[in-house]
Amino acid sequence: MIDRAGILMDNGARIACHRVEGMNDNMSHSHYHTYFELYFLEGGARHHIMQDQQYETKVGSFMLFAPYIMHYSFSDHDVPFKRTVLYFKEDAILSPALLSMLKEGSGLYEPEQKISSSVHYLLNEIQREQERDDPLHEAAMQNLLNTLLLAIMRSTSAAPKPETQSRMAKVISYIEKNYQHELRLQDIAEEFYVSEYYLCHEFKKYTNRTIVQYINALRILHAQRLITESDLNFTKIAEQTGFSSLTHFNRTFKSIVGTSPSAYRKTNPKQI
To answer: In what order do the strands lie in the sheet with 53-57?
Structure first.
């Protein structure tokens, strides 16, 4: 399924919205964005994995993902769904207090019917403005976005995180807490009292990635943040993200991001 809102963001938009209907459109692996995502479910049901937790969205509920939060979504077989996705960059938020709340607000929201209806209405208005071609449409979209987000943050809060049921969720949590250190398959298996074979098999089934792929993706995610948010050299960044050598770091970074760390820093300079 084409992510039209994502294409708009890649082309320089600060706010983008898109509604789609689908069935059996399941993501194959976790991903993240450099901007916020609000995922509003209008029909059907949808499961979401955010970091090491699983959530279920129902009609009228929504997920909020802050930048760099790993997540993916899926549905049960042959269950249709309808959703609207809203992407927005940090600089589209007018209030520092609101931005701070959003950064800490990733999770599932299950608002009362009145608030859910307001969110739905404002998403429709944002999408209508997106199709307009006049000098004020961007300002109108920004005002609608901030009205929507203020309504959410003043009236509801993210649902408590569900209890983790899966051993694999605990494995993911362990990896995320220890990615800066050497992580050997044997050590992880011993930590959770399972065989290496069982660990690899169940982890792949749970995440659609091998453990090595997941660890490398997580390390590169943090490396990207350090590249754009600090003046650390690449040797230090490699050390702080768990790579055994600069060569290994450079090779892994290019295989995942598609460009070298130095080229990535040039195209994503530190924000002052």
So the answer is: 53-57, 46-50, 71-74
Residue with tokens 């399972």: 194
| Cα 62 from Cα 120, distance rounded (Å) | 10
Q: Mean pLDDT throughout 229-252? A: 94
Identify the CA nearest to 175 among candidates 68, 55, 52. 52
Neighbours of 156 (CB within 10 A): 15
My answer on whether 96 and 194 are in the same domain is no
Q: Name 62's bridge partners.
A: 40, 109
| pLDDT tens digits for range 7-21 | 999 899 999 999 988
The residue written with tokens 């220890």 in the block is: 178
Contact criterion met (CB below 8 Å) for 73 and 44: no
- The CATH code of the domain that includes 64 is 2.60.120.280
For the whole model, what pTM was predicted? 0.60
Return the structure tokens found at 187: 């050590």
Q: Which residues of 60-80 are buried (b: 16+ CB within 10 A; e: fewer)?
A: bbbbbbbbebbbbbbbeeeee
Domain at 187, CATH number: 1.10.10.60
> For the chain, how many structural domains are there in total?
2
Residue 43: how many other CB atoms lie within 10 Å = 12
